[in-house]
Each structure stands twice: as structure tokens, then as C-alpha cells.
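Late entry, evening session. Most of the bench is empty. Finally got around to the prediction I had been postponing all week. Sequence below, unchanged from the version circulated by S.P.
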Amino acid sequence: MGVSQQELAALAGLRREKVNRFESGMEDIFLSDLARLLRVLGLELSIAESGPPSSSDEIIVERISGKQRQLVPARLDEAAILDGSKIKVIDWGRVPG
């Protein structure tokens, strides 16, 4: 789309610094802010049920600190973890504790 951070922030009603911190991974983003940014870019966030993973593509993550975890495909390079009303995009190799 070729939009600067300043233009994107203005169109989404956010501060440029916030867009910069999110883009650089220095700050988590509220889902509402993410939806605003995506809308400006003509995109939308959707969650869909994936097909059944094969046993060779699964990682079983046990209950850690009382948090319920699920089976996830091992081939994911990144995963999104909901944390309250915020979303963290992380490298799967560094799951937050």
C-alpha cells in the first residue's frame, strides 16, 4: 500500500509512536488498535478452525502455571497469544512464561 507510519497512524486514529513501537516489537497492541490498523489497510483479522494436525506436526504443551494450553502445529514460525485484551505476536521458540 506504500503508507508511512505517520499516514497509517493518522488514518487509524493512533499516534505514530504507538505504530512504531508495535511495528518494532517494543509494545503489545490492543486488539481494537490492530483491527483499526488492518481496516485502514483493507484487511481484517479472522480466526478459523484449522484442519486436524498430523501426529508428526504436533507439539504437546502441558499445563504451565495453571494456564490451559492446546495442541499446536509444530510448523508455526509465529503464534499469536491473547493476553487479556492485548495480543502478543511471538516467535514460537520463545513462548512467554
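Two things to note before I forget:
Helices lie at 5-12, 16-23, 31-40.
The chain has two domains: 1-46, 50-97.
Will write this up properly tomorrow.
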